[in-house]
Automatic annotation (TrEMBL):
Keywords: ATP-binding, Nucleotide-binding
PANTHER family (alphabetical): PTHR12435
Source organism per UniProt: Rhodocollybia butyracea
Protein name: Chromatin associated protein KTI12
UniProt xrefs under SUPFAM superfamilies: P-loop containing nucleoside triphosphate hydrolases (SSF52540)
Length: 285
């Protein structure tokens, strides 16, 4: 049904907001949809804060998160992704994954001052705490969501001091998830069926069979030709006009007098020219 991407500074209160949103969406959907909260600390991901200490460990962590998102996306699920999602390129990947499944999207930006994030991070212990160096580095690298780009839209901003979440924000989010615009997959990413390995052979063999039967049936008589491709497959084809139809017009001119203004050229060249014109008229119908 929909995807909610949470974004914000590390230790900005994203998980708290994600829990609030899950509770609201469960009540709003009244059990008609599954509301799933995917967090980096989920037992099947268990991404430690230390994963952001270096690019060598952060890249596979993001890959695991994206894989989990793709696996959980479903038309019958409201998926909330609780992670920093601080790189706009990664948010775009999430958006594309949602678009492939044709689910609605929304982004929630948890806006918290850096000083408050430092304060809250210092209250954490063990694996739940960012190192001071990593925290400052992530502050510098954070790419703020923008409502001007499609992968961050619609964008809902929550101030760290907004508690509870304003009802207008909740109502707007629900409308976006329940009635928002669905974006079709990019045609460049949609999987297309490949032709079988024997396609070229089948093409050449079948077209030759059709041409041979058409030419054999034509023999100057034309009309409707029944083409047999196999014991259980036949085609009907109307080919060139019959010989009778070709000569009928000219025979009237001979037996009843000319049907054209002026004299008629009955030489081989004249008859041939009129015959070619007649054929062209028939083939263009």
């Amino acid at each position: 049904m929909s995807l909610v991407t949470i974004s914000g500074y590390p230790a900005s209160g994203k998980s708290f907001r994600a829990s609030q949103l899950k509770e609201f969406l469960q009540a709003k959907s009244a059990g008609s949809k599954d509301v799933v909260l995917l967090s980096e600390t989920s037992h099947y991901l268990d991404i430690k804060r230390s994963a952001y200490d270096s690019s060598a460990t952060e890249k596979p962590a993001r890959g695991a998160l994206l894989t989990a998102i793709i696996r959980l996306l479903s038309p019958n699920t409201i998926l909330i992704v609780d992670a920093p999602n601080y790189i706009k390129g990664f948010r775009y990947q999430i958006y594309c994954a949602a678009r492939e499944v044709k689910v609605r999207v929304a982004t929630v930006y948890v806006l918290t001052p850096q000083e408050k994030c430092r304060e809250w991070n210092n209250l954490r212990e063990g694996d739940d705490k960012y190192s001071q160096e990593t925290l400052e580095n992530l502050f510098l690298r954070y790419e703020e969501p923008s409502s001007m780009v499609r992968w961050d839209s619609p964008l809902f901003t929550l101030l760290w001091s907004d508690n509870p979440i304003p009802q207008s924000t909740l109502d707007g989010l629900w409308d976006a998830l329940d009635k928002g615009k669905l974006t079709n997959p990019n045609s460049g990413t949609v999987a297309t069926a490949k032709a079988p390995t024997d396609a070229l052979s089948t093409l050449e063999k079948t077209t030759l069979t059709v041409m041979q039967q058409v030419m054999s049936a034509q023999d100057g008589f034309g009309g409707v030709v029944t083409i047999s491709l196999s014991s259980s497959s036949t085609l009907k084809l109307t080919t060139l006009p019959t010989k009778t139809a070709i000569c009928h017009r000219q025979k009237k001119a001979i037996t009843l007098g000319t049907i054209e203004r002026g004299s008629v050229d009955w030489s081989e060249e004249g008859v041939g020219q009129r015959f070619v014109v007649f054929l062209e008229e028939q083939l263009q119908r």
